[in-house]
Amino acid sequence: MSAIEKNCVVVPVDFGELSLTAIATALEYVKSPNQIHAVHILEALQATDPAMIWNTLDDEVRKNNAHKKLEEVLNQPEHQGIQIYVEIGHPSEKIVDFSQEKNADLIVIPTHGRRGISRFMLGSVTERVIRFAQCPVLVLR
């Protein structure tokens, strides 16, 4: 095994174009796609959300829908074997916790590259993942 080969790579996926780039990059670090754990994080529904008030949508339905969408997005021959997960919670916390659960060697995460006051106002999931992750984090722009 070379110095850059990894046994477990976590890739947070938000269905953006950069997420597919992150998957492609992660494939360069593993021997097999089944060593990649693609995870999508859903924000928890707020108690005032109409879907919660009228009980028209629950977390399991949301997770199933997101899982199906991930399967569609990763329905390419080179992606066969990638493990797919959907979690609910705060994105940066869930990514860090998930990476620790999987004993990840690497997190490959895309960023939108916000700068200045925009980054300050919106916060940065990527920045918090870098700060709290127990493994190396590769940030893609």
Features:
single chain; 141 residues; alpha/beta; Rossmann fold; 5-stranded parallel sheet; 18% strand; globular
Distance between the termini: 28 Å
Q: Give the class-level CATH name.
A: Alpha Beta
| CATH topology annotation | Rossmann fold
Can you name the CATH architecture? 3-Layer(aba) Sandwich
Rg calc: 16 Å
Write the layout of secondary structure elements.
Layout: E1 9-12, H1 17-27, E2 36-42, H2 50-53, H3 59-73, E3 83-88, H4 91-101, E4 106-110, H5 116-122, H6 125-132, E5 137-140
Parallel strand pairs: 1-2, 1-4, 2-3, 4-5
Helix pairs in contact: 4-6
Give an overview of the whole structure.
By secondary structure, the chain is an alpha/beta fold. The protein has one domain (9-140): HUPs (Rossmann fold). Helix content is 40%, strand content 18%. The chain has helices spanning 17-27, 50-53, 59-73, 91-101, 116-122, 125-132; strands at residues 9-12, 36-42, 83-88, 106-110, 137-140. Strand 1, helix 1 (17-27) and strand 2 (36-42) form a beta-alpha-beta unit. Helix 4 packs parallel to helix 6 (125-132). The chain is globular and about 50 Å long.
Short structural summary:
This protein is 40% helix and 18% strand. It has 141 residues and is of the alpha/beta class. It has one domain (9-140): Rossmann fold.
